[in-house]
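Look over both lines:
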Amino acid sequence: MTSPEAHERSISLPGHGWVGLAIMVGGEALLYLGVHLIAVYFTAIMWTGYILFVDGLIWARTGSSLLKNRPREWPMLALISILGWLLFEVYNIRLLNWGYVGM
């Protein structure tokens, strides 16, 4: 059985969750409108929005959030994620396995 506090948490999304949702919706709208800067950085923009939104959903469901509960750890996690992405980009320079259309 769910406690009333847990039920109330599952309804309310924290601010960073709403910001993430706004980033994703805004990014899609601006891409549709043909904003070049959004098209160039679309993956990074949407990924940022997704992380904020999903972390907000997790907090709403469980009361635990990496951004809220571990504010000193998530910058390192973000750095590791970026470095991992760049590693694959460096491999691609040599292997030429994929390319970006319209870049």
Summary: The CA atoms of residues 59 and 65 lie 5 Å apart. The chain is about 75% helix and 0% strand.
